[in-house]
Backbone:
């Protein structure tokens, strides 16, 4: 379904420059998008993808460069103007108002109203229709968005974009919070849109998705276009990676240790753990040096399991034992004291101190290590943080900049760095590589494996089945709040996991 | 009735003698609490007017404040400045005593107005209103009006409760009522503002379904109090005011409300303080006295103003 | 404003979308895990049910009033007294609910009310009012309030001065100006039409109580049923998201302060009619009462969540408390001591209920 | 607390980690595009440079003082007067900076200071102090402050009462209690050792100014160089993230209010020594001055960002302003009017500088 190349492209951006204090985020980017195509934007973390689309949605004003829509040069002065041109955006950091309902969020800024009075019935009806068409009719229009899972919030964003008269839909890493099923649903929606002539700009770090949905590719590197108009179906992966990173990376998981871990002492033992209304009867044993993966659909309750285990939610039943000592229920300090660490799922709300410097974010849970009599040795902190950010390839490299100014993927690396630094007996990782680029991924996998080899018990939750199978020694499949399968990772393959995960699930 | 001769204390009284002739310029520092009600505003205003009347007085007025810490620093500033005299109406007399002592030790005479210091050495001259006496006057007047009716309901709308002056007034009131076997049945504090007076009075009317007499400490808040009475349509009682604003006196004169009397608490004290300071520094004495020195203490009288004698007072009353 | 654009839902969506069961079992009320910052429980929209704890606190207070003072508390006259006292704080509190929900705060309300009351009772204004119509005074009061609100709003939204500081500055300046204009005199109102109108009663209910009820009702509708209300929540809850959704956050912020300014003008009219005076001391420290009523009602001080019903109950709780104390002839000190304890008790009570109504 | 476990930093890191040049040219101050909510510009950590605009405002104020009043302003005696005045507000403001940065607020500081001053000057305490040592009074003042802080802290962190309401309740109760204990009388201090100590001067500098300097210095170190300060920033910036990072948010919150309570006790000692009295009216409305100084200094009212240096400058700006006004003999009303204008001007100035220092 390649688009017709004749006529002026729907969108033509050229020479776009955007500077932030100390960083030239965009340094002469060119991009053209045709009606009816899915145009993929590739690039490492911090390459400038999100900044580019924020320029496009008029969230930022560019410092230089031109934007033409339908061949006519245009100034996009405010987000409202961009919307008038039919540009709808789903941002990387979901920008919804937590306390407003689903319907209110969808129509925020272009409320259905008569004489200033909201037409709530009409809004709810329209919302229901939108959600049904997106395959998520179970989300109630009156529910507060803050209570939805990230995947459901993504759907709300999508519905919001569709509630406008959209000609150009921009999706910034939409699949980061979705599982296979969700991605398939998303692609179905995208195909429907492009068939009607809507253009889509699609950003993702998962190359297999690009192959499946994309028509053409533009690659950004350090804020500049390094290649454009590449054919999404045929360009070899190695070439793409070379273009993005400037080097070649073989994308592999680190080798598993040869000695069977089940021989060692169990470090973490969970018995009959339950959280009222979400999951129950979860048993889990993790040995020293072992990596256990939790696979499952989004919303299956995997995050809840490890958050409960960590004491961040109060269990309604069951026990958690670390090194033979029982943990007090619902107490994070108790878990931390016992050597448990949790790298949470949502980096912005659960992980980061956005206004604080990078190094402070990295050392926040191990501050005691850098302190003598409560006095901190900031130089040691910076040194350690710099080592970590370098090995994770955080860009830009300075550890003194506020985390807020980092790109999404780089922020994720900071959250992860904190927990890699921490001396833990048990490390719980929830979606550790969400939004992280290809280059940094293998580095993260290697680090996690190295930690395990040093005797840490690791639990990884991921929606990418490939990641769970590749990284973990043992895999648990979670469905609707219950563990439905457990086996060694090399005794099960991707399609079997998918079958287990889907069984009985809606759609 | 007593002769209220000294209370006026206005410029008109000091006409004779050479006291009004210009002498060396006198720099006077003046500090008073925040002018958050009419009486206090008029204290500062009367001080300014008094100073303006003399070309040899250079008055420095510090920001009115209810923060003793700030008021102390104002006095310190005056000391640093080397003013010739300080006229001080302290927010809290006891709390301002140390810094006043400091000024006296630095050779700057302090004229203490209205709220008395803890230590007599902290002021060269003290110009006092008589808060206790005010309560006594109000109480005695109510006693005389109600006669011997021990069942009569007497209500009191006080000022700011945490101020010592309010306690003194209430004490005087209670003591005077006790003389004729009455007591205060309902007491509500307000805050010296019309708004506070209205609020307090509205609640008071509900608390006491039947009242015979009310003493309201302050005529400024009294405007609100009267408005509340009017709103509620209650007039079975008579009210005595306090401080003696021109508004209140006009109302008494016109006899158009429940306000039948008010107890004067002279707001001219500020002006008196300025005059004392000038005389002190220029080493003059009070013209009408034989004394060659300015006296140590002047206590002003708290007369009751009624329709009978309002003529006598209305000209010196403060506009609030 | 593009509000009325007709939207064709799901334009271009595949017709093959799988319909899922329309009734959703997982739909719970709002709530869920939120940051641990102190709060009043998940008070979401409006409605008595969500404010059950507060209502209960108010009821208990009334019962205490009835038990300790008999029918003196329960009499119509006393209830009207409570409502009359609540009216001034109440009107401002409704406006403050919008400002706080929108992520701001306004410390200048008392000062603006004072300035407004002074301006509209100057000799000049009163003379003009007598010569023409007393509505001139109403116009003056509202205009002064709106102007002050406009300045605060512009400072906050375009000047990017933090609301606390901008409105603190407005507080100082407005009161200073009020003092200068009035020369610190209490200005007595003598415009018969004005006093007659605002002092009147309609079927036994004082006009200012009716005004309060009207403002509360309009406030409720605007807050819960209009675009303006929804946008206020969005601007306070996530200003960046609101901006990206095409809302003019800065203009909206200005409007929020302007409406509060206008309501301060309304409050000025009420206090003028109650005390028959305009003075620079009106409304001293009322800002604390107002903010306390709004916050105890369940509006989030950080913005993004608010309730008009809660605010009204908050105002009533505070006024009733004072009334019960006065009827009981307690000393100010005891009142203060008890007030603190009662406030905390009311909040804890409200929390219990909020927590209970949230659990499944 | 597992924070103190000895660990070799960077454990488990790849040996191949490339060392990056220790000095980083791209390091800018924190900042960047933020939601449109009003603010004071990107004031990050501490240090004079970040507060350049404020320093400039203070300098301009001093120049105005010098120009309009000559050496009367610049004399040592006058500067010490300013500092003595600043000391009481200053000490509390340092503590408030921690509380606000930690996501809270405390309206009860003035009342707690009053209660503390009353408690430590009761006849009983004074008698005991004379019989034993005046340090008893110090102990009493600090203990009362700490106890009040503890109650507020527990209400906020475990009772989950919003800080505004919890501390407003504490305000009412503490002042009520202070009035009851003192029976609304001003209590005179007559313990020679006490007065001698706090009234003394060391090489010409009054003890209370030295105390202020000490508190500020310790506050700066704790805020910027210790785990406690870091945790405060984390708790205020994102309590959920702090909790998940293993910080005991609730306990930390309690500690924040307790330290402020203790500093209110210190302030009580200072005001007692200045006035030689303890009374329930001490510190009335000081909370507004304190919060204004903290916020104008650049601490974010929403928490998560604060600066001790900014707070100190904020306090000095307000006290210097008052001093210059006093020296210049303006009327109170003009002062108020001007004060508002000057505050806004100072903030806008600070913003210009913050914006400039952020651009590359
Ligand atoms: N508000 C900001 N202030 C300062 N620098 C910023 C800001 N936003 C982005 N940057 C910088 O601009 C660069 C590009 O960031 P951008 O978010 O566009 O990257 P990205 O390609 O979307 O990366 P990712 O894949 O991680 O999402 C990064 O170096 C980032 O640090
Ligand atoms: N705060 C909350 N309030 C109410 N329901 C919630 C809340 N958080 C999660 N849920 C619900 O609990 C279920 C599990 O959610 P969650 O997204 O954590 O599952 P998960 O398996 O961890 O998925 P993910 O792949 O996103 O990590 C979902 O139905 C979600 O809507
Ligand atoms: Mg991005
Ligand atoms: Mg999850």
Residues:
């Amino acid at each position: 379904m390649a688009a017709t190349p004749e006529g002026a492209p729907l969108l033509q951006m050229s020479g776009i420059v955007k500077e932030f204090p100390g960083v030239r985020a965009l340094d002469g980017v060119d991009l053209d998008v045709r009606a009816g195509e899915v145009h993929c934007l590739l690039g490492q973390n911090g390459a400038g993808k999100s900044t580019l689309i924020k320029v496009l949605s008029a969230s930022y004003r560019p410092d230089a460069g031109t934007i033409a829509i339908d061949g006519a040069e245009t100034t996009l002065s405010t987000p409202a103007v961009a919307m008038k041109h039919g540009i709808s955006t789903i941002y990387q950091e979901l920008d919804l108002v937590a306390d407003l309902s689903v319907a209110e969020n969808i129509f925020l800024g272009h409320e259905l109203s008569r004489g200033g009075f909201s037409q709530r019935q009409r809004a709810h009806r329209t919302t229901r229709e939108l959600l049904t068409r997106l395959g998520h009719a179970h989300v109630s229009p009156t529910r507060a968005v803050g209570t939805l899972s990230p995947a459901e919030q993504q759907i709300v964003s999508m519905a919001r974009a569709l509630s406008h008269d959209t000609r150009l839909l921009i999706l910034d890493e939409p699949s980061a919070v979705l599982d296979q099923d969700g991605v398939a649903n998303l692609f179905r929606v995208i195909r429907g849109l492009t068939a009607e002539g809507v253009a889509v700009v699609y950003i993702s770090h998962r190359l297999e998705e690009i192959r499946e949905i994309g028509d053409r590719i533009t690659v950004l590197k350090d804020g500049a276009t390094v290649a454009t108009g590449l054919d999404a179906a045929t360009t070899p992966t190695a070439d793409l990676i070379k273009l993005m990173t400037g080097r070649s990376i073989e994308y592999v998981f680190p080798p598993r240790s040869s000695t069977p871990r089940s021989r060692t002492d169990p470090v973490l033992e969970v018995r009959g753990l339950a959280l009222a209304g979400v999951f129950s009867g979860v048993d889990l044993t993790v040995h020293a040096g072992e990596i256990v993966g939790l696979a499952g659909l989004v919303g299956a309750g995997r995050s809840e399991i490890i958050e409960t285990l960590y004491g961040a939610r109060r269990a309604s039943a069951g026990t958690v034992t670390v090194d033979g000592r029982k943990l007090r229920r619902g107490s994070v300090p108790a878990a931390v004291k016992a050597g448990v660490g949790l790298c949470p799922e949502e980096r912005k709300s659960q992980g980061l101190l956005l206004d604080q410097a990078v190094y402070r974010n990295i050392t926040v849970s191990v501050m005691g290590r850098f302190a003598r009599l409560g006095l901190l040795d900031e130089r040691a902190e910076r040194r350690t943080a710099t080592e970590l950010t370098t090995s994770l390839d955080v860009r830009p490299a300075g550890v003194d900049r506020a985390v807020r100014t980092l790109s999404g993927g780089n922020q994720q690396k900071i959250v992860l760095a904190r927990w890699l630094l921490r001396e833990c007996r048990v490390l719980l990782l929830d979606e550790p590589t969400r939004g992280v680029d290809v280059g940094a991924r293998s580095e993260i996998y290697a680090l996690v494996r190295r930690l395990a080899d040093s005797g840490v018990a690791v639990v990884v939750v991921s929606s990418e089945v490939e990641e769970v199978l590749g990284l973990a020694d043992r895999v648990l499949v979670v469905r609707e709040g219950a563990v439905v399968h457990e086996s060694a990772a090399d005794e099960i393959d991707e399609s079997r996991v998918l079958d287990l995960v889907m069984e009985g699930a809606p759609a | 009735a007593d002769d209220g001769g000294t209370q006026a204390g206005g410029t008109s009284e000091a006409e004779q003698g050479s006291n009004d002739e210009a002498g060396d310029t006198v720099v006077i520092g003046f500090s008073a609490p925040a002018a958050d009600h009419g009486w206090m505003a008029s204290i500062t205003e009367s001080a300014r007017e008094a100073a303006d009347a003399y070309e040899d007085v250079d008055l420095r007025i510090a920001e009115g404040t209810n923060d003793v810490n700030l008021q102390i620093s104002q006095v310190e500033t005056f000391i640093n400045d080397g003013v010739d005299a300080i006229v001080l109406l302290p927010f809290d007399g006891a709390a301002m005593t140390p810094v006043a002592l400091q000024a006296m030790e630095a050779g700057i005479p302090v004229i203490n107005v209205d709220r008395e210091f803890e230590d007599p050495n902290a002021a060269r001259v003290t110009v006092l209103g008589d808060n206790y006496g005010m309560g006594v006057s109000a109480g005695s007047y109510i006693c005389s009006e109600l006669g011997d009716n021990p069942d009569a309901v007497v209500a009191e709308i006080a000022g700011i409760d945490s101020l010592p002056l309010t306690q003194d007034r209430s004490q005087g009131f209670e003591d005077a009522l006790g003389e004729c076997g009455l007591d205060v049945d309902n007491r509500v504090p307000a805050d010296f503002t019309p708004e506070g007076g209205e609020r307090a009075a509205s609640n008071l009317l509900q608390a006491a379904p039947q009242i015979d007499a009310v003493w309201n400490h302050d005529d400024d808040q009294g405007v609100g109090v009267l408005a509340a009475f009017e709103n509620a349509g209650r007039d079975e009682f008579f009210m005595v005011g306090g401080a003696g604003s021109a508004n209140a006196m006009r109302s008494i004169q016109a006899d158009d409300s429940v306000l039948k009397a008010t107890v004067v608490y002279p707001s001219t004290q500020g002006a008196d303080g300025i005059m004392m300071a000038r005389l002190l520094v220029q080493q003059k004495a009070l013209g009408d006295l034989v004394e060659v020195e300015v006296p140590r203490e002047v206590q002003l009288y708290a007369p009751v103003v009624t329709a009978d004698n309002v003529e006598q007072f209305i000209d010196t009353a403060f506009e609030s | 404003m593009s509000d009325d654009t007709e939207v064709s839902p799901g334009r271009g969506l595949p017709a093959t979308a799988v319909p899922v069961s329309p009734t959703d079992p997982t739909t719970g009320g709002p709530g869920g895990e939120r940051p641990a910052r102190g709060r009043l429980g998940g008070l979401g929209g409006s409605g008595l049910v969500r404010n059950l704890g507060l209502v209960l606190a108010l009821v208990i207070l009334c019962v205490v009033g009835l038990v300790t003072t008999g029918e003196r508390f329960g009499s119509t006259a006393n209830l009207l007294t409570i409502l009359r006292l609540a009216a001034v704080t109440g009107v401002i509190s409704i406006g403050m609910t919008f400002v706080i929900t929108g992520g701001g705060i306004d410390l200048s309300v008392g000062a603006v009310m004072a300035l407004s009351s002074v301006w509209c009772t100057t000799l000049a204004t009163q003379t003009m009012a007598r010569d023409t119509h007393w509505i001139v005074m109403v116009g003056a009061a509202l205009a002064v309030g709106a102007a002050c609100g406009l300045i605060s709003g512009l400072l906050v939204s375009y000047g990017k001065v933090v609301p606390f500081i901008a409105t603190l500055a407005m507080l100082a300046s407005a009161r200073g100006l009020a003092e200068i204009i009035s020369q610190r005199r209490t200005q007595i109102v003598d415009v018969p039409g004005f006093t007659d109108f605002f002092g009147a009663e309609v079927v036994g209910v004082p006009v200012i109580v009716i005004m309060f009820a009207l403002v509360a009702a309009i406030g409720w509708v605007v807050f819960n049923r209009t675009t303006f209300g929804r946008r206020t929540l969005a601007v306070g809850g996530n200003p960046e998201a609101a901006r990206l959704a095409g809302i003019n956050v800065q203009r909206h912020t200005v409007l929020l302060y302007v409406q509060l300014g206008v309501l301060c003008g309304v409050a000025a009219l009420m206090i003028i009619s109650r005390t028959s005076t305009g003075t620079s001391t009106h409304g001293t420290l009322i800002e604390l009462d107002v903010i306390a009523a709004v916050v105890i009602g369940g509006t989030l001080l950080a913005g993004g969540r608010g309730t008009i019903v809660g605010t009204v109950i908050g105002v009533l709780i505070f006024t009733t408390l004072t009334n019960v104390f006065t009827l009981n002839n307690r000393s100010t000190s005891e009142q203060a001591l008890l007030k603190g304890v009662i406030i905390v008790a009311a909040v804890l009570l409200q929390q219990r209920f909020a927590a209970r109504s949230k659990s499944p």
Q: What stands out?
A: Chains A and B do not touch (no CB pair under 8 Å).
